[in-house]
Amino acid sequence: MPERTQTVTIEGYDAVKLHVIAYGALLQLGWTVKYAGNNILVAYIHKTWKGYDNEITIQTADGQLSVTSKMAQGTASDPAETEKDVTDFMNAFDAVKKKATDEDLREWNQQVSAIEEETVKLAEQEIKQSTEVD
Predict the structure, then answer these.
(1) Could you give the C-alpha distances from 2 to 8, 33, 53, 61, in angstroms and in order?
(2) Beta-carbon neighbour count of residue 58 at 10 Å?
(3) How much is the pTM?
(4) Which residues on neighbouring strands pair with residue 67, listed in sequence order?
(5) Of 13, 16, 38, 41, which Cα lies nearest the Cα of 26?
(6) What is the largest CA-CA distance in the chain?
(7) What is the rounded distance in angstroms from the CA atom of residue 39 to the CA atom of residue 59?
(8) Which residues contact 22 (CB under 8 A, 6 or more apart)?
(9) How confident is the model at residue 32 (pLDDT cuts 50, 70, 90)?
(10) Considering only 11-20, 48-57, 60-69, 94-103, which range has the smallest mean pLDDT?
(11) Which phi and psi angles does 2 have, rounded to 5°?
């Protein structure tokens, strides 16, 4: 499966602010954010009527942003698609970073927190089901 990762340094931004701006960029692109964790976002790009084609993983640290696009299993292998996803995300991120208001950031932070809570619940359910199977 083709995969593309790009990491950039962004001076003056802590991990949390980068995390929230990245969420805003994913929203702007119309990509579906499925999971969120400690400075990690996982989103999917819906490209066909069959479902999601590419998985996007965003990781943040103080002053650093990393984006990875990975093609879903069973999809055609075109490395240019993952490259395009990363470029599209970085362009959206730059645009959102320039225009995001404090109100936008607060709202997105609340939305990310809700996704993080849901992600924890899903993980706990999977652990419980796995334990029951054993």
Answers:
(1) 20, 21, 12, 25
(2) 24
(3) 0.87
(4) 6, 58
(5) 41
(6) 51
(7) 6
(8) 41, 58, 60, 65, 67, 93
(9) very high
(10) 48-57
(11) -65, 145
